[in-house]
Amino acid sequence: MATDLFEALTQVDARVEKRLIEIRRELHARPELSLLERTTADYLADYLDRLPVENLRVNVGGTGVVAEVRGKLPGRSVLVRADMDGLPLTETTDLPFRSKNAGVMHACGHDVHMAIALELADSLAVNQHRVPGMVRFAFQPAEERAAGAKPMIDDGVLEGIDRVIGLHVWAGLPTGLVSIRSGPMMASADWFALTVRGKGGHGRCPTSRSTRS
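Predicted structure:
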């Protein structure tokens, strides 16, 4: 049965590919900053509400969205997490799906993460008879500010969960290649202050000393 489910989830035909691209581009065009992801949350909730999911919740930990797919077979409870927020950057491309929100851009792949999670929720929901256990989908706000995970945890998003799955797109990997490791990876945000002490120089070439008398 696990093999049947894997085969069902990996059948990425032209229809699925087209849907993934459309979702990603729709989300890319409407980025929002951390803790302000209201339009994004509405988009996610509306999409999930059309699927046979359970326990759809909004405003989790702020603007987070949560929904569950309960399988018909016994098994573990797994959390699939995707981040929602954009970055305070101005997109300068001429793409038709470029950001429509001035000064905000999905430049870190969160639009892709959300599209993948929505497609996975869709695929699991229509294959519930093959799914063991329960899969909870958590769309987390404020990843870029390291401010969204704890409020969602405080709202109970990890209750009853045995495993957590997250992913991040990586431009350095060839298309079709997945990189994994045992244990946590890129699961920390740290802040530090750096002071650089050096000699004076010309603004054009600050590493050289000024020769002006």
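Summary: The two ends are 81 Å apart (CA to CA).
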